[in-house]
């Protein structure tokens, strides 16, 4: 099927030339309106849509964020449904309402392919005093970098998709594909209600969907685009050690107690060695072996390890070759200790023996690790370590989050379309990469909708998602908007 | 030297009998006036003299408290000097004025011993909504218990001393010793200016002082009095492990970093074993060996270990006998891990690799441990553990607080006098105990003034200092006032 003729593209001699000419006009439009696009991003970043901290005020901000996005989608001409997904149950037993999930549609031409874009508008917590150079909720541009919480994860990419669609609308060009949007506000909190919603909407909203695109991660370079064909899963654990609910004074009780922090530190210290190897017995049993074909793909990746290290501001990685580093980020599991709740965490010198403490750690999972098996292995290991201590305290281990890993077949149609769009807009082949982090939605779409899932990232490697001074480059944001426009055109060509 | 003859005691046939008769009259006076004494305590408790929260309103309350006390001391006939000790520098750079230290004198007979009493009139914060049964600043009597913030720590004991002196004055009896008072208002905030003041006043106010008495802690029993002859010191350490200032996302960096939390957990886990033994090499080298005499003192202490355990709401202590438990609280060092600053410490499941974390722990010190030696041992140990990990991170260990332990010779004169006074007033030998926490003032007096320091507590074990529903029993307050009167008489006998 060819893209619908439009007044501007009709004089062209072939669909391909017409498409090239249209893309040039779309790109010019995007360039000319870039300050407006940045201003919209500024307005979106200004909303403290933090889904992690379970506070009513922040939930209000999330609601406001979703309403802003719904308005913007309606301005594009989309029909928008804000689906209530109920409440989130908190560990303390309370419940907090969750923001609605937006389901939006634009076009339903049965002759066109239907591409569904997934994005999220919630963010990680951020406070200026944690080391931000400016208010994290005031988008600040310095040397072409747009600093702000959510700028790259994931408000910028959601807007880039909207910008691309908006460019077609502004030029009064038919969209070459039908577009659907699913936009949520609880991704950082693990998307508690999303899978159920997707299952429920499988035969309704998702019934005509041919392809799913996610743009919620980063390139592996500052300048070279990438396509992502796999993500790691995650199993997040808490281990609580309790002596009593109240704290103790270390003067009046120090020396006669099994102190919960000593137990906890021993438990956390038993998880991973100094070389990064996870010490939980059996944990590597189901990790897929490396194939020759896979090894070649890693060798082809354009990564200057020294530049990567230095731009990450890290003195040294655990491994010395590009292949080892990338494999340990993408196709091997890793274990990180995140912190301790309930101990003394403020500045100063408080002489407290915390009475009850909770350690937090997670294991990034890879094919073909299995969540229930990992959960059992971790619990057995910690119980073994704890019982050896003969402590009178009480230990409780919980897996509070379990998310599967995902991997796609890079020979699928939309991977080829995306490669061509990248070639057109950026003049280069993309790096074919994975993402070491967890985007559970990819695996859910793959399992439930059973359609091809593509990850088409816009952000540069140094964007610092989840970190202080998160940013997206103006160049990535604007060229990324063009990339999405080019991608729509390439997807249409697949159906020619 | 004999107590000065007085009309009432003169008919007695010996100084000892005269003293016994005088004490009976003093005790009767104290019993008869106990409601007045409780009323004065009520007036003092009503002043919210909180030195912890750096608020101007509370500093005004502290000034009012010190003025009330100065008035009361002047009514006794004392000469009182309110010494300005300047301002307290707050962490945020602001400064707040500190309340004056009162230096008061009553009598300067060169033939009498001079006893200096140290006390403080500031209190820990208290709010009724934290779990107090009544307004913490309205002294409330229930079943002979006088509930109120500061009732036992330290307003009650300061007033008991004043009540004892006042009884001599009311009966127009000469004081058998010269009395000095040093009363401060910043003890709970760490007495920032006190050591300097004591050093400055060493050859002036303190020049004639023979003995120093502190009554700022508790018995180990609800009914049996105690003498305290030692307190532990404290060395507070921070150990920072830094990869970079910013945090990382555990998805995008997990697997290729020496993660600071893994290093820190290994460092903290190397400090103390599951039996509470400190693993820093050499740390026990200077701990005084237990003598037979000491062992007997521990055996004589009246402690129901099971009741102590259950009232502490602890399932099990590390040791099974009274002697082991008390020795590990008082005369052996202990190490407590307080917490971690810079890691994820909130509720929820944040997938962060903290970039820079600071662990906090402290070691309670006992004679004859030496602060610089302990500091060196801890630093060397942590450097050794860290270097074995071959981590690319940066580790910094600091001792941020160093307070010496204190121990007195229980054969000193005033210990003997206090034991006799206790025997006379309470009809029992005291428990000879130590305090596991750190009261730096004792060691400062010992080092600077170089005179005998005695801790003569009045409060019962369940008084709940620093806690909700702090109280002093009416019985302890009134019998304690008699005890101080008896102590003055016994001190005079020492000089007969």
UniProtKB/TrEMBL annotation, chains A, B:
This is Carnosine dipeptidase 1. Keywords: Carboxypeptidase, Hydrolase, Manganese, Metal-binding, Metalloprotease, Phosphoprotein, Protease. GO terms for biological process: proteolysis. The lineage of its organism: Eukaryota, Metazoa, Chordata, Craniata, Vertebrata. Binds 2 manganese ions per subunit. One of its GO terms (molecular function) is carboxypeptidase activity. PANTHER family: BETA-ALA-HIS DIPEPTIDASE. The record marks 249 as: Important for catalytic activity. Mn(2+) 1 binds at residues 153, 188, 466. GO terms for cellular component: cytosol. Transmembrane segments: none annotated. The active site is at residues 122, 187. Pfam families: M20_dimer, Peptidase_M20. Belongs to the peptidase M20A family. Residues 230-386 form the Peptidase M20 dimerisation domain. Mn(2+) 2 binds at residues 120, 153, 216. It comes from Rousettus aegyptiacus. Its cofactor is Mn(2+).
């Amino acid at each position: 099927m060819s893209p619908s003729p439009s007044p501007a593209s009709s004089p062209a001699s072939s669909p391909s030339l017409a498409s090239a000419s249209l893309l040039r006009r779309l790109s010019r439009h995007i360039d000319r309106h870039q300050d407006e696009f940045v201003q919209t991003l500024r307005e979106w970043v200004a909303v403290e849509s933090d889904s992690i901290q379970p506070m009513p005020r922040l939930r209000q901000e999330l609601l406001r964020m979703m309403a802003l996005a719904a308005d913007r989608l309606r301005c594009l001409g989309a029909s928008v449904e804000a689906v209530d997904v109920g409440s989130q149950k908190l560990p303390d037993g309370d419940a907090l309402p969750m923001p609605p999930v937006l389901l939006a549609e634009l076009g339903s031409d049965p002759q066109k392919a239907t591409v569904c874009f997934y994005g999220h508008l919630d963010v990680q917590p951020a406070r200026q005093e944690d080391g931000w150079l400016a208010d994290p909720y005031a988008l600040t541009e310095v040397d072409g970098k747009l600093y702000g919480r959510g700028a790259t994860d994931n408000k910028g990419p959601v807007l880039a998709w909207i910008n691309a669609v908006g460019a077609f609308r502004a030029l009064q060009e038919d969209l070459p594909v039908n577009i659907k949007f699913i936009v949520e506000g609880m991704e950082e909190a693990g998307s508690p209600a999303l899978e159920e919603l997707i299952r429920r909407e499988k035969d309704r909203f998702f019934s005509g969907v041919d392809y799913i695109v996610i743009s919620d991660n980063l390139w592996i370079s500052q300048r070279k685009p990438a396509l992502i064909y796999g993500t790691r899963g995650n199993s997040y654990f808490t281990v609580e050690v309790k002596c009593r609910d109240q704290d103790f004074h270390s003067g009046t009780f120090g020396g006669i107690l099994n102190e919960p922090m000593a137990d906890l530190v021993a438990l956390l210290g038993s998880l991973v060695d100094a070389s990064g190897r996870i010490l939980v017995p059996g944990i590597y049993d189901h990790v897929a072996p490396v194939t020759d074909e896979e090894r070649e793909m890693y060798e082809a990746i354009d990564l200057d390890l020294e530049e990567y290290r230095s731009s990450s501001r890290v003195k040294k990685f655990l491994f010395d070759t590009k292949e080892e580093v990338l494999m340990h980020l993408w196709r091997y599991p890793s274990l990180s200790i995140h912190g301790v709740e309930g101990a003394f965490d403020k500045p100063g010198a408080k002489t407290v023996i915390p009475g009850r403490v909770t350690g937090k750690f997670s294991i990034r999972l890879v094919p073909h690790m299995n969540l229930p098996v990992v959960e059992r292995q971790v619990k057995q290991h910690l119980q073994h370590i704890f019982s050896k201590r003969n402590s009178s305290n009480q230990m409780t281990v919980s897996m509070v989050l379990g998310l599967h890993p995902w991997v796609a077949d890079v020979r699928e149609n939309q991977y080829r379309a995306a490669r061509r769009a990248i070639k057109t807009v950026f003049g280069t082949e993309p790096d074919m990469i994975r993402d070491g982090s967890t985007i559970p939605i990819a695996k859910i779409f793959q399992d439930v909708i059973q359609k091809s899932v593509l990850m088409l990232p816009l952000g540069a490697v140094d964007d610092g998602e989840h970190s202080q001074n998160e940013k997206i480059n103006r160049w990535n944001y604007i060229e990324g908007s063009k990339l999405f426009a080019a991608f729509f055109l390439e997807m249409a060509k697949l159906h020619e």
